[in-house]
Sequence to fold (340 residues):
Amino acid sequence: MCCSVRGAITIEENTKECIWENTELMLSEIINRNSLSAEDIISVVFTATRDIDAAYPAVVLRKMGITEASLICMQEMYVRGSLEMCIRVMVTINTDKAQKDMEHVYLKGAVVLRPDLVKKKTDAVAIDGPAGSGKSTVARLISKELGYIYVDTGAMYRTVGLYCLENGVDLSDDGAVVSALPHVDIRLSFEDGIQRIYMNGRDVTDDIRTQSAADAASKVAAVPEVRAELVRLQKKIAEKNNVVMDGRDIGTNVLPHARTKIYLDARVEERAKRRCNELSEKGISFDYNNIIKEIIERDDYDKKRKVNPLSVAKDAVVIDTTGLPVDQVKNKIMELVKSK
Ligand code: DC
Fold:
């Protein structure tokens, strides 16, 4: 089925850079808010007010990797008293959704055109990094201080992994994992801002914390269909709530427009030490060398997978937490959040 999404944005100057930057912002918002992929887009029609003539907005689509859609740019008729320096767009897409569910995007000065459609903006702090970098501890503290909910996206991949383990789904067979996906109903609840996770109605918050669930999570997280479904859920939560969200691809893929993006890292020996402490607190025996090996293997898997691998977003602040007390890491991030 075909639907169309409308958008408009005003630009500050009639320069090539300004036209392209704002066009990209508007299109990214249309794509993100409607969970579109490049292949869904059939055609894009741009119009620009007569005071814009430094560049064609459509060029941006090719730069964004949207190469198949039909494009056209047109100059608008002049209407006395109407908004100046404005680029409008109509994107036609292939979708199963109904037209009434499309989210139109009006940004900057263009919000005056459709104030009825302007949503209350939610805030997001995106924290990415490898296993054991301290993400969840710090994210919990920050969410508490800001009064935001803490969304642990790794728990979602662990839940899909746990389902596969418990139901004999072959983790090396992507097709089998994809077939299992519709049978895993994931629900999150937030108690005092902290997440609990349910798999088909069962609270699995604690059951997913095993090494086997972590390894299974890393495997299912490399399957594009699993990622698409979980990313859709994650975006939906962030649309409705102020969030501190942690994972591997939050700043790069799930919330590319998050106001604050952090990438936490730490030396592998330190991350192994933290894992060992965690296990001995739970009374679980372990072998230090094995833990190091598991961490290196999982890092490797998460960094080298084809879809949305663990990587540093270009606008993220990198913090090395090796030897840093948790409070110092938290304070650094809080300073960043407040400075924005
Ligand atoms: O953070 P964690 O250990 O709970 O994550 C478990 C696995 O899930 C991790 O190895 C990679 C994957 N993951 C991911 O691919 N993307 C995310 N946003 C979060 C986790």
